[in-house]
Amino acid sequence: MSDTKTIDQPQSGRSRAYQRLTPETAVLLLIDHQSGLVSGVRDLAPDEVRHNVVAFARAARVLRVPVVLTSTAPMMWGPTLPELTEALPGVENIERSFINAWDEPRIRDAVTRIGRQKLLIGGITTHVCLAFPAMSAVADGYDVYALLDASGTWSDLLRLTAIEQMRQAGVTITSGSAAFVEMLHNNASPIAGEFYAALDLPATRYILQITQGGKSA
Fold it and tell me: DSSP state, 102?
């Protein structure tokens, strides 16, 4: 049976084939997860966003999904979350002045050098730091996935308008929770335990307990 299906997207008038996310085809771009910006998030709990983005960074390492990290105006918005940089040893934090991260040549070059088609993006804020580069990368031919649980903004209204705008542009709206589990693919994988421990979300903690219980039985 083929893994490919046709998904209609009436909002943008487009339809395209669904292809599974895999660790071999994906790259993760994390934009502006800085202390000052995270503290202003209101559509999700700031602590939830902090936890999620670090969990996805750790899960990316387990799955060997490359990560590109960027921040802007640290004197204004604060430093990148220390627990995030700790989760990504050896990953350069690309500081930039452009509001749209995709306008920064070093970021585009980093993604291009990795050579993968499926671009997963989380950013703060959702309506600017996620939406702008997501739509720009689609225009450049990438399959872009907006990770809403690794993003946040100042209000529900800004979140909803950003989602609609991204959908119109052809961005796939999803969550890191779904995307990373899709990339694991098989709970019998030898890295499943390490993966779920890294992801460290409520449901995955339960799965990890079951997995460990099965191994010890």
Answer: G
- Collapsing DSSP states into helix, strand and coil, what is residue 152? strand
Q: What is the β-pairing status of strands 143-147 and 93-96?
A: unpaired
Hey, what are 79's tokens? 């430093």
On whether the CB atoms of residues 123 and 101 are closer than 8 A, the answer is yes
Domains in the chain with CATH codes:
22-184 (3.40.50.850)
Q: How far apart are the first and last CA of the chain?
A: 34
> Helices then strands (H, E): number in the chain?
10, 8
- pTM of the prediction? 0.88
- Pairing state between β 14-18 and 5-9: antiparallel
Beta carbons of 194 and 184 less than 8 angstroms apart? no
Closest by CA position to 28, among listed 128, 176, 186, 129 = 176
pLDDT tens, position by position, 46-87: 999 999 999 999 999 999 999 999 999 999 999 999 999 999
- The kind and range of the H/E element at 98 are none
Residues involved in catalysis: 129
CB of 101 within 8 A of CB of 69? no
Distance CA 155, CA 41 (A): 8
Backbone angles phi, psi at 7, to 5 degrees: -115, 120
